[in-house]
Model the fold of this input.
Amino acid sequence: MKKFVNVCLILAVAVMASSCNCYKKMAKKADEVTISCNPEVLTLKGQNIITDVTVTFPEKYYHKKAVAKVTPVLEFEGGSIEGVPQYFQGSKVKDNYTVIDKKTGGEYTMSVSIPYDPRAEVSTLVMVVEAKCQGKDAEMVEIARIPVAEGVNTLQNSVDYTSALELMSDKYEKTTVISEKANIMYNINASNVRKNQLTTEQIKALEAFITENVDKDRVTLGSVYANGYASPEGPLAFNDKLSKARSESGKKALTKELKKVEGVTYDAAAYGEDWDGFKELVEASNIEDKAMILQILQMTSNPVERDAQIKNMSAVFEQLAEEVLPQLRRTQLVATAEVQNLTDAEIKAAIEKGELSKLSLEQLLYGATLIEDNATKAKVYAAATKYEDARAFNNLGVVCAEMGDWASASTAFAKAAKVSSDATINNNITVGALAEGKYAEAKQYLAGASEEAKALASVAEGNYAAANGKLSGYNAAVNYVLDGNYSAAKSALAGDKSAEAEYLRAVIAAQMDNASEASAYLKSAISLNPALKAKAEKDVNLKGIEF
Done:
């Protein structure tokens, strides 16, 4: 691959009018001085544009009394940025600069590091040379401006930060199960339903529930169950029969009460001694020895042994007989109904008609997942933010980022963080800050971010080795290219036929000096995404590649 900058560039010094012989004589042999860059193309690494510039002075060249100042300057449309200058001096200059011996000459490498400016992708690195002869009042005179490199390799910025963003889930249910319960209570050892048990508020609420939902649109009423129980006292076989008798009597009583309501199915089930209910009531009670009772329940599984041990605690048993056991002599009546909520088609239709105000929070959050167009998704999530729910703000931020609007994305993530401290939001704030180049802000949230976000932070800092093995797909490939591992990069791209993947394959081929292959991949990328043509035109990695 042909680079922008040749390895050796002639130092063509344009000496300004001056009578000082010390650097005039140096200028006559300027063609013997060489400057080279490594890498030959300026590279964005971390937050800085870097390269090493090596200046080689030949033997019998550098004047013993000359002082030279070489300043790297990155020039681009609309501005320029200066790097740290390097000073050189002849062997007779009384100063502390790098000495270039006249007899032997010398070589010095400047590590150039210039803060990144997005405008500098199309730029020229110029070495500004100033010189003077030794003297207290001597002033530096600019004698040359030498271009040494053009353009900046900004492949590091090609990582896809949106891949590390996380959506927060909706809780929408296509069907909802609703229910109503009521208890018919019995006297000890009895299974007959007393009249006062059919006039309680619970029974009336249950009857109203059944009547309302038996033939209601979008509602399917299930069977109404009568579940009989017995308190855990007395013979086990007797209690089994008693619970069955109670379930049957409870079913019969309710059926009679609702005889005018058509379409209701009734069923009965017997559960014998209600040890689970017993345990719950004891745990919720203030019985002094409840810890001992609970220990018996835990250590003894046989119901007969349990009953015997508890009855042996005579004082405690009296309290149980008064406060707990009566609540277990019952038939529990249970009615359930399945409610069909809005279908996918109905939700999508409401969105397409712009009737977002008619949808609930969960319907909006779910509805957005049914939409392909990001602009419409953003409108749906924006409508959901009226509920002041963190998920709405967070998901709006993700969609804004996917649309390339990272400023709006970060604003949305910040609003989500005011409502919730969910780890997903912390992760997205980190990723948003990285994407906007706000590395100091990203570090504040990095500890709680995902491993992918942490790896992307390593890439942003130029620590590519640290990110190896922690990214996948396209992002892993970008990092491997940055780290010089082209084979691993190709493997990471396997199966990815996106425009971005084809473009990166073109860069890899160009780096490996395979111009024809790079051209084929680049043409493929542009055919998939014509906008990549403009990117390729200023990409130093693809200089000279036909498309």
Remarks:
- The longest strand covers residues 34-45.
